[in-house]
């Protein structure tokens, strides 16, 4: 006879309705990148913008962010 582990129903898991984008937006690294993009959008080259946006995508941030 094998014993099963008892699992608690009150897991401290992420909210069920929280999206990957919402979790990514709570990340301080994501916030720093977004802040840099907002401040320097006009002065950044296309290559720099692309690098920053690719990094946001890597952090699971979706296309729902805005520039202002």
Describe the structure.
The chain has 68 residues and is an all-alpha fold. The protein is built from three helices and no strands. It has helices spanning 20-25, 28-40, 46-58. Helix 2 (28-40) runs antiparallel to helix 3. The radius of gyration is 18 Å and the shape is elongated.
Short descriptors:
elongated; mainly alpha; single chain; 68 residues
Compact summary:
With 68 residues, the protein is mainly α. 47% of the residues lie in helices and 0% in strands.
Question: How many distinct helices?
Answer: 3
The helix-and-strand class reads mainly alpha
First-last Cα distance:
61 Å
Unreliable spans are: none
Tell me the overall shape.
elongated
Quaternary structure: single chain
Overall pLDDT level: 79
Radius of gyration: 18 Å
Q: Strand fraction band?
A: under 5%
Largest sheet: none
Topology as H/E string? HHH
Number of strands: 0
Q: Provide the helix percentage.
A: 40-55%
């Amino acid at each position: 006879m094998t014993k099963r582990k008892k699992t608690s129903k009150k897991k401290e898991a992420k909210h069920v309705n929280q999206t990957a984008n919402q979790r990514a937006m709570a990340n301080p690294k994501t916030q720093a990148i977004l802040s840099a993009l907002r401040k320097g959008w006009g002065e950044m080259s296309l290559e720099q913008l692309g690098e920053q946006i690719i990094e946001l995508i890597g952090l699971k941030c979706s296309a729902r962010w805005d520039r202002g």
